[in-house]
UniProtKB/TrEMBL annotation:
It holds the Pfam family FMO-like. The keyword Flavoprotein applies. Keywords: FAD, Flavoprotein, NADP, Oxidoreductase. The keyword Flavoprotein applies. Belongs to the FMO family. It comes from the Bacteria. PANTHER family: DIMETHYLANILINE MONOOXYGENASE. This is NAD(P)-binding domain-containing protein.
Amino acid sequence: MQHIGIIGAGLSGLVTAKAFLGAGYRVTLFEKAAAIGGVWEKSRSYHGVATQTTRDEYAFSDFPMPKDYPLWPSGEQVKRYLQSYAEHFGILPNIRFNTAVSWLRHEDGAWLADYTHLPSGQTDTQVFDFMAVCTGTFSTPSIPDFPGAASFTGQLLHSSQITDATALKGKRVAVVGFAKSATDVATLSAGIATETHLLFRKAQWKVPRYFGNLINMRYLLFSRFSEAFFNAPYKTPFQKFLHSAGKPMVWMQWRGLELLLKTQFKLKACNMLPSHRIEDQISCSLGVAPEGFYQKVKDGSIRAQQTEIDRIEGDVIHLKNGSSLQVDILVCGTGFRQTLNFLDARHRQHIIGEQGHFRLFRNILHPDVPNLGFVGYNSSLFTTLTSEIAANWLVRYAQGSLRLPPPEQIRADITFMGNWRQSGRPIAGEFSGTCVAPFNFMHLDQLMRDMGLRTTATRWLPYEFFKPINPKDYRILLGDSPKDVPQSRAAVRTADAIA
């Protein structure tokens, strides 16, 4: 393996390039935009976007965010951080900007990538020994096909297109959705638009940056202890206890958290009390409540309605609850679609199942597609770290140094995880099954064991069990010499988990 091709220069593509360059490979990275950053690139970031987690969690293990950044950095600050990362590790000279891969196929033991230089329209083909797809799960904005949308006389936009707040000033604005981008844009609009409406199918749980205005969210959501309260597909002994004899503890934990959120956000007064359990929702779509969002709903600055759009006629939006709105701008905070249109259909059918879910072992590869890996398709609330560990895992896979089960057991594991997402935890199917949250530690531990590395930075188990995740720990762990992980032990572990 000499020449590595990487598609996408977001955070996952950058950390993958850094890992392969560090291992002595030649790297070419294709990026269709004019700059790095992916979802954080300025032309794709809505005004006021910020991280969901703090600067200490949303960082690479060997490159901390600047200490003068606020605890929750803005999108512009994240973009500067990624730029500094790319400069520091010498990644930029290997990137072809404004270049899109149109067709990726495997022939005669090599990958052929047809690409187009977008400004000039010039096309060419390049050959690679190994390919890493790092386009991420937020690359294709999703806008519903509303009946009558073609007749709309206003602007129909995706939330990622609200790059300038002045676009909303003095306008009648309606926002569709209840995810992070939808509530962020609605909160922004409420301060500058003449009217702001929020249309949502069902209320979702949101969490504050500080629970009870005192406790940072990381202490309640980002530890091995908190992860144990979720019904994982692979359970530790403590998890097995919790979800059998310890079920009353689990029930009290979640009902107590719900009570805290109901009280802190005054959800009943806002008419935004979710009808589902919070533990059934927590995943990558878990949103941090924008500052002042619920207060603006309560005082009417945001006119929220639990309904859907029936049809559009001119500047009038007819709703399924029988009411109608006249708006100038309709913003869809309705997420993204996950596609691989550039990948040859012969290989794409292995990777994407009939229901559109990705079928990848460890969210990284499929055993029937040679020399192709995915990074960033193991998204979490701190994707910088999960992508970094996946990138290091992929380098070792390319080198042939991973200790993995036989291909038939890998296929069985892929099937097991697909069935679990469908029947055991439906929310795990969001983002086409590419989200590993809330089982972040389970996923990271699997990758570390595959590499023959330790899973904790210290031997003090109580400390490791209760402390929030810390990317700096993995700088220590990745620097360790790989430990021998017998093939039989890895195979038995996977077989037992599947059983």
